[in-house]
Fold:
Amino acid sequence: MLENLEFGALLMVVGMSMVFLILAMLWGVIAIFQQIDRRMFAREAARAQQESTPIETLSPELLAAITIAIHRYRQETSASQQPRLQIPKRMEPPQARWVAVGRSYQLRSHVISRKR
Structure:
């Protein structure tokens, strides 16, 4: 009986230490990849900043065209994301009102709101 208890305690200690060591190794690998990713991102950001053209060098016509294109794109995407509520032509009161309200809540819950 005492042998089984000792074996169980030893097995528990070995198993828990193995799990702890594996988790510590995974944490170290993730930390290393995080550092590599940060360095690569910093290099890419510095390279993009060097290669980008400042706004002051753009002609006013090109700047206006870009602004109009962005404005139209935002209007188009915000209008296409709004659901269109279709109410049946013939509705039976009072259940039909509850159905319409429920459908409108369901449609609103699936719309992804854009933060500006």
Remarks:
- The chain has a mean pLDDT of 81.
- DSSP finds three helices and no strands in the chain.
- Residues 55-82 form one domain.
